[in-house]
Amino acid sequence: MAESPSPWELRRRTLLRARKKVRAGEPDGVHDVRVALRRVSATARALGRRKVERRAKKIVRSLSSDRQLEVDRALLVRVRQLGLLSEDAATALEVRWVSLSKDGTGGADRFGREKRVRRLLRKLRALAAHPEADTLERLLDERANAQAALADAPAKTDDEALHRYRLLIKRARYLAEDLVELGRPEFEAFASRERSAQDVLGRWNDMRFFVQRIERERKLAQWRGAVRLAAELDELVRALQGPLASLRREAMETAHRISTSFSLAARSA
Prior knowledge:
Elements: H1 7-23, H2 29-46, H3 50-81, H4 87-105, H5 107-129, H6 135-150, H7 159-181, H8 188-224, H9 227-268
Helix pairs in contact: 1-2, 1-5, 2-3, 2-7, 3-4, 3-5, 3-8, 6-7, 7-8, 8-9
């Protein structure tokens, strides 16, 4: 049986595929690059490669505004379809956000980011060429630490704590997927459950930031004297409070289910 590729080689391949999607202009390209980089970061942290972890996180942060704008534009399409915003108002926002998107993906920033990605890919290739004997043990230890962190549920009134818990779920999931790739199929159930939980918390987080962007646009319209647009956006913010609260409840319930399961497992161990 052929030996499985090292985690570093798997992370390198995933990042290469995601980068090709960005270059081809595919809609989910930026998202896939950020996921690939977060996976690099989780693996690097587990295996003690702090410099690699920092490099990956730095590139992720540089893409955050592009990705959020991508998400917000998709939600704007949905709002438009539901008739929660007039065609004139939706078009005005879309034109403005397209302009922001173009500003965020061109010029020196994009060139510098591509250089950082190339350096990271070279480093991953070098690490893959010299696999470490204790890789599996270290990933298992880090996964145990991640599970212990998930046993502490976020406070029910704290959005930032819920957001941090969402990131912990991501990290735990990526480690579980690493372990599955290294021949530990018992972690597939964990990865699947955490993937579903991540989707639930992600929908809440996307809506939360979308409402915040609409509120900023309302204030900007008010400052510019665009009274009609400001009024429409104010009405939209109010209309979205119910769906946002519903998504938040679902996210919090999901977080507490995950927390309870790991807390009970820890007590019975």
